[in-house]
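Build the 3D complex.
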Amino acid sequence: MDLIMDSLPLLWEGLKLTAYITVLGLFFGFIIGLITALFRLSPIAPLKWLAIWFINIVRGTPFLVQLFFIYFGLNSLSWISLSPINAGILGISINAGAYIAEIIRAGIQSIDKGQTEAARTLGLSSAQTMRYIILPQALRRMLPTFVNQAIISLKDTSLLSVIGIAELTQRGQIVVSATYEAFKIWTVVGIMYFILIYLLTQLGNYVERRYELR
Amino acid sequence: MSIIEVKNLKKSFGDLEVLKDISTEVNEQEVVCVIGPSGSGKSTFLRCLNKLEEITDGHVIVNGHDITDPKININKIRQEVGMVFQHFNLFPHKSVLENITLAPMKVKSVNKQAAREKALELLDKVGLKEKADSYPGELSGGQKQRVAIARALAMEPKVMLFDEPTSALDPEMIGEVLEVMKQLAKEGMTMVVVTHEMGFAREVGDRVIFMDGGFIVEEKEPEQLFGNPENERTKAFLGKVL
Ligand SMILES: Nc1ncnc2c1ncn2[C@@H]1O[C@H](COP(=O)(O)OP(=O)(O)OP(=O)(O)O)[C@@H](O)[C@H]1O
Ligand SMILES: [Mg+2]
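Done.
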């Protein structure tokens, strides 16, 4: 018992880092996803193809390979120098971004065409229609899927241990190798992830209720 | 003076030619009703008047501007052409008041206070002042359609287009919507109304257009068209619906 107590501060530091990387990764991932989705639906062919290829490449390769590409590949270029944490955040952002792009695209396309027609008929431009009419409804509708992606991204951060980021999983390994208490420590780590994901789900439910379409 | 002038309008969807050669005009303060069998192209015709559909050939001149000109600023033209849809198309994430104030504020840069006042005035006019803070999901079909009319009117259009505004309504709600439209007509609003309500066309219309197979088959004052149709197809159609 003492052993677990002693290890808690260390694991807590890891938990904080996991949460930090997840939050930033999802924040940038959302921005990347929104831009990619708008490109994807744009009538301008080059933007559309750019988006399609970005999505396909990310979806068609394992996250670990993407992470190695960013951390070892990009860092091998003389003019790029990424710290492990920044590489990790970038990896999560890009990976989540591609999936979020598809979520947002599906959300936008699920909105009835009559909404666009009503808005355009009133004289709103296509950009105003997207901003005031389509996106607010699409984002509400895609919220459950977005929470799902947030959970996946959070779990993906455990892979960042391989590039030496002292997030929760990495801390777990360190503590286990110092104490040989694999069973207890991994149980505690698992519970910590579980709580994080539980909180994320609750937050999603709260936001969903708050912005429910009346 | 004509607000809308349609010259040899043609519209195809791929190989399907839906409007074959339509010419007509709508004069100021006139109420034109469009009737005809399902699939005859009534909605398509109406939707060409504000370029919701790309126009394949011919010209549509709204308020002196040829909207088939590729350089035209269509957003500008649309501000002057209100449209009411069969399925209302209210914005479900916005309150009734916000539905009405959105376009004046974003498109015409009317300030919030003025937009609110105008919206409340319009809601009063359609009998829904007490619903200002409700959401579309909380309204009946007839109420939704009256809000949709108020929303279109808030842009102070020169002409209003209606595409079967009562077709999606329960029978007991049709009257309240037609009443609002009658009132509008009385106030001198120029209107083009696609409708299955022959009673409305007869009573309120200044002119009735009968469409079939992508053509205007007959176009007359209601008394004449309903009382004394000339074309066989008009007779057959009226025989079925009257
Ligand atoms: N976007 C579209 N793409 C392909 N065909 C279309 C499209 N819109 C309409 N049509 C076709 O054009 C024809 C005319 O349709 P339209 O909706 O104008 O008829 P309508 O007279 O309004 O009929 P209704 O009384 O049923 O509303 C129909 O054959 C319809 O299937
Ligand atoms: Mg129709």
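The radius of gyration of chain B is 18 Å.
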